[in-house]
Design a protein that fits this description.
- The protein has four helices and no strands.
- It is mainly α and 99 residues long.
- α1 crosses α2 (48-62).
- The longest helix is centred in the N-terminal third of the chain and has 15 residues, at 12-26.
- The protein starts with 11 loop residues before the first helix and ends in a 9-residue tail after the last helix.
């Protein structure tokens, strides 16, 4: 019998809150506000170097791993949220209690 992780996956709002904390920390801007369309062109300093830092922070925060091919399709924050949510749904060890 297979059990579903659906009930253990954090809501999108929780994912956005955790991502906002990551972005604010990395870009040292406590006023940053994220939405699905937020992209590199919206945040000064979001370049390939900071993107590597963002990805590492997301992997650590959500206890997941991204594949290179997956990252190539990430064009905005909404793409990251969708991928994080998918990773958490497939992961047997979902850590959704952090806030």
């Amino acid at each position: 019998m297979t059990t579903s992780n659906h009930n253990r996956v954090p809501a999108n709002e929780v994912i956005y809150k955790r991502l906002t904390d990551i972005f604010r920390n990395i870009f040292e801007d406590s006023s940053l506000s994220l939405n699905p369309e937020t992209s590199e062109s919206d945040i000064p300093g979001w370049d390939s170097f900071s993107n590597v830092t963002l990805v590492a922070a997301m992997e650590k925060e959500f206890s997941i791993r991204f594949r290179t091919a997956e990252l190539q399709s990430m064009h905005n924050v909404g793409s990251f949220v969708d991928l994080i949510r998918a990773k958490l749904q497939e992961s047997p060890d979902v850590h959704s209690s952090r806030s």
